[in-house]
Amino acid sequence: MPHNPLAALLAEDRCLLLDGALATELERRGCDLRDPLWSAKVLLEQPRLIRQVHLDYFAAGAQCAITASYQATPLGFAARGLDMARSRQLIARSAQLALQARAAYRATHAQAGALLVAGSIGPYGAYLADGAEYRGDYALPRAALREFHRPRVAALVEAGVDLLACETQPSLPEVAALLDVLQEFPQAVAWFSFTLRDAAHLSDGTPLREAVALLDGHPQVVALGINCVAPALATDALRHLGALTELPLVVYPNAGERYDADRKCWQADGADAGTLADQLDAWRAAGARLIGGCCRTTPQDIARLAQRLASPQA
User: Do the domain assignments include residue 3?
Assistant: First the structure.
């Protein structure tokens, strides 16, 4: 059986606080990510800034950093003239930067407790850079999806991440292909989190129950959940998931805005999503145990979550 790094951290009904957005936080600090590589572009140009963002999230109270590998793929890097070896070096660098930030934080915070690094595995739709991770409207043979994901999984596992975050997954065929690849690395474990059409369906229309049926009970799958959905959708989706599995649930929604794939930016949809901390009680009541933020959330949002989790009422 592979080691589950979440087990002790989630004992006695505790929660694990994830970090918040990486790419949009890099944009907030001056990076221009209007580029098919998105945050992976910064691995080439300003890797120290990625390390600093990770460090700032740990300082805000995050217990798990998610690497800057969401859109770091050999296909994406090949468009910049980089070969497979260089691509894998850059993917490994994303893990090394998070691990370095963890070590730096621990060096000055001896009582920090366990801190994890999760290797981000974004979907093929992220490589397309057209918002397809929110639609799931692409189709590749299962073997092609395995070939797409395998080098990144290998690079992250070899670099020493604690677990994988198979995140922002919009379609069941891709989830199945990722599970195939995960089984090629039998000591690795992962959480799977999905984008949604509504509270009961993946973005491609697959009922959530079918995705859960595929993943639930697999020894390498340690949590299931949702990410980069609007906060307003998260609670109902968690309740639905909680009726389907006893695995820990993970939730890290975006800030409630809509992604404009043409302009490569986020736009307000007119609804007041409130803060992540405002939703914390509802998410915990619905079964969420791994909680953080996705696009357009900040270290300040994570700090508010940390404060709320530390309060006597939490």
Answer: no
CA distance 147 to 180: 11
- Where residue 90 sits, what CATH number does that domain have? 3.20.20.330
Cβ–Cβ < 8 Å for 212, 185: no
Taking a C-beta distance cutoff of 8 angstroms, is the pair 223, 191 a contact? yes
Report the C-alpha gap between 264 and 267 in whole angstroms: 10
Q: Which regions of the chain does DSSP assign to beta strands (E)?
A: 16-17, 64-66, 116-121, 163-169, 190-194, 196-198, 201-202, 221-227, 249-252, 257-260, 265-268, 288-291
Token pair listed for 166: 């198979």
In a domain, 99, yes or no: yes
Distance (Å, whole) CA 39 – CA 26 = 8
State the burial class of residue 12 (Cβ atoms within 10 Å of its Cβ: 0-12, 13-18, 19+). Answer: exposed
Domains contained in the chain, number: 1
Determine how β-strand 196-198 pairs with β-strand 201-202: antiparallel
Q: In the block, which residue shows the tokens 């001056």?
A: 30
Q: Which helix (H) or strand (E) holds 212?
A: helix 208-215
**Length of the chain in terms of residues written:** 314
What domain range is 283 assigned to?
A: 11-310
Asked whether residue 1 is domain-assigned, the answer is no
pTM given for the model: 0.94
As a whole number of angstroms, the distance between CA 258 and CA 87 comes to 30
DSSP 3-state assignment of 255?
coil
Please name the residues in contact with 39: beta carbons below 8 A apart, sequence gap of 6 or more. Answer: 22, 23, 26, 33, 50, 68, 70, 71, 72
Kindly state whether residue 6 falls inside one of the protein's structural domains: no
147-200 pLDDT, tens per residue?
Answer: 999 999 999 999 999 999 999 999 999 999 999 999 999 999 999 999 999 999
